[in-house]
Amino acid sequence: MPNQARPSTGEQARQHALARLRQAILHGEMAPAQRLVENELAEQFGVTRASVRAALIELESEGLVERIRNRGSRVRVVTVEEAVAITECRMVLEGLCAGKAAVEASDEQLDQLAALGEAMSKAVADGEPVTYSDLNHELHAHIRQFSGQQVAVGLLERLNGQLVRHRFQLALRPGRPQKSLSEHLAMIDTIRARDPQAAEAAVRAHLAGVIDALRE
Amino acid sequence: MPNQARPSTGEQARQHALARLRQAILHGEMAPAQRLVENELAEQFGVTRASVRAALIELESEGLVERIRNRGSRVRVVTVEEAVAITECRMVLEGLCAGKAAVEASDEQLDQLAALGEAMSKAVADGEPVTYSDLNHELHAHIRQFSGQQVAVGLLERLNGQLVRHRFQLALRPGRPQKSLSEHLAMIDTIRARDPQAAEAAVRAHLAGVIDALRE
DNA sequence: TCGAACAACATTGTCAACAATTTCGTTCGA
DNA sequence: TCGAACGAAATTGTTGACAATGTTGTTCGA
Fold first, then answer.
1. DSSP state, B3?
2. Which of A117, A200, B9, B198 is the most exposed place for a label (fewest CB within 10 A)?
3. Nearest nt to A40, CA vs C1'?
4. CA angle B127, B177, B158 (to 5 degrees)
5. How far is A159 from chain B (nearest CA, A)?
6. What topology does CATH give the domain A80-214?
7. Successive 10-residue mean pLDDT values, chain A, 216 residues
């Protein structure tokens, strides 16, 4: 792995280490269950061990890293059962957000959702699962954002961080995009119709489908 | 404040500091918005500053303290708006738990809920709001626990930690226990009837009531 | 008297060294 | 040959000191 660290700035070292490490885990550069030795990371990022340590503590409470006393840190592996439990929480929280978004969103924002829906339809028609997966993620992020529910947004972003690895597997499954597309379009339609209850139901139906898919 | 620190164990200092500090905040020993100076806390708890620092970083991501670069830490103050937003999240997450508890709980556990319900009725009849508040808290904790949904439990415990100060105010409001009691009994009944949808609805109705009360 | 530059102070951020703990390989004995 | 005790290496936990940053009180000039 290349030493991409800055020339040892000395300024805001911890934040630098935190950002780099989080990105590395989220982008899958670190293998699951890989050991995270403080000294190695410190050298790799060009900061001191104390900064790495602080970053690891923070990542632990984000659920990305697992720390055991006197034993060290590992990239946390999320089992399928945990992924299901996490998605159940996403289900109700995103349902809350969708309901609020149906009420709170501006007309311009609703147009953005419509545009996203068309882009997703096109991606599926063109058979581009990666593009579709990106748009999918973007759609959910937009709905969260439009809800204005900052607490829920915070919780959801944390939960999503723990699912990076599972999301990949799901997107590439054959036939999956077709099924999920109609669910997504239903979410968009109900929000645009400014119907909170229907929007919540649509989001929950969609994520219930994701849970089924996770279980294979 | 008495120096309740151990005679400087040297072992697991950070965990000690973390526990003491969290307890102090949760028990209201620290005034809202009080400054938390690392040196003072270190001396108070009989640990080094690094341990206090680690504890503060962890408490920050729990939402109990607020940290600003080069400016220090404060006990985080939760505005009424935030308390409402937090309770909205609690509403959907506890709804999820109640639905699962209605399916997963054992018969013995359902009996525990029934017993709690009777105790709560008695506390209201006897006009003991503090006892009632404790039982209230206990009931919610039991339902969470019986759901077996560890992820939701984790999120809820964190959210509840941020509400300590608001909970007090709510419990002592005249007339509040009477209204909330019937809602709680409905929650218990629907779970004992093993009706997930009704249980979820009952919990959400109850917490919607709490939100109304929070808004005064 | 009021405002701005300045300096002293308080506090956090960073660092390198030391102590404690765990892990793993080795040796000794049955 | 197998198992347990032992010891060395690796790694984390802790400590005190130093550097960077923000804050506050003071002085000088208009």
1. -
2. B9
3. D11
4. 120
5. 9
6. Four Helix Bundle (Hemerythrin (Met), subunit A) (1.20.120)
7. 38 80 92 92 92 93 93 93 97 98 98 98 94 96 98 97 88 87 98 98 98 92
